[in-house]
Design a protein that fits this description.
The protein is built from five helices and five strands. By secondary structure, the protein is an alpha+beta fold. The chain folds into two domains: 109 residues, no CATH class; 49 residues.
């Protein structure tokens, strides 16, 4: 779910960058993300919550072309719906067992271990105040303390522990 939120945040950021003036009139186009099948689950978020695909504009047009004339009684509908939900849960569990290996392979391709030492100068990628979807490099800060997975960085007026993935080595530019 965290990965989906990261993807959605990236989509919103890109959308707002291109449509700053009229974002409120066209934001509905982002609802398409609820229809997209998530690789790790094998289903879209909408399907998992509601048990069927989204009935968007294209679905409405398709229904007009290929009308289903079957009559459903309530018991048949509920039985079929329950069967689809059980089948969906089985498929989701199967996909979730396969996904970690795929994600690890993908992650390991891009992974670069970052190791910092005490007193080393670093930059930190921090959100811009008032702009939660944007970030910038701040610093030239120094590492105060090192633990197994995170670092304590000396930032004036701020006490905090920072994970390595937002810390970058500071490289002084050389001027001729």
């Amino acid at each position: 779910m965290e990965r989906y939120h990261q993807t959605l945040k990236t989509m919103i950021k890109a959308y707002l960058f291109d449509n700053q003036k009229y974002w409120d009139e066209r934001i509905h186009s982002l609802f398409a993300s609820r229809e997209v099948v998530q690789e790790s689950l094998g289903f879209s978020p909408f399907e998992l919550v509601f048990g069927h695909t989204v009935r968007g504009p294209l679905k409405v047009v398709e229904e007009g072309w290929f009308e289903d004339t079957r009559e459903y009684n309530l018991l048949d509908y509920v039985s079929e719906f329950r069967y689809r939900l059980y089948r969906t849960c089985d498929l989701v569990h199967k996909n979730l067992k396969e996904t970690p290996e795929k994600m690890k392979i993908w992650y390991d391709k891009k992974f670069r271990e970052r190791v910092f030492n005490v007193s080393e100068r670093v930059l930190i990628l921090l959100p811009i105040p008032g702009e939660p979807l944007q970030a910038k490099f701040c610093g030239q800060y120094t590492i105060d303390k090192v633990s197994d997975v995170d670092y304590i960085v000396c930032i004036p007026g701020v006490m905090g522990t920072w994970f390595a993935f937002i810390i970058f080595p500071f490289v002084a530019s050389i001027q001729h």
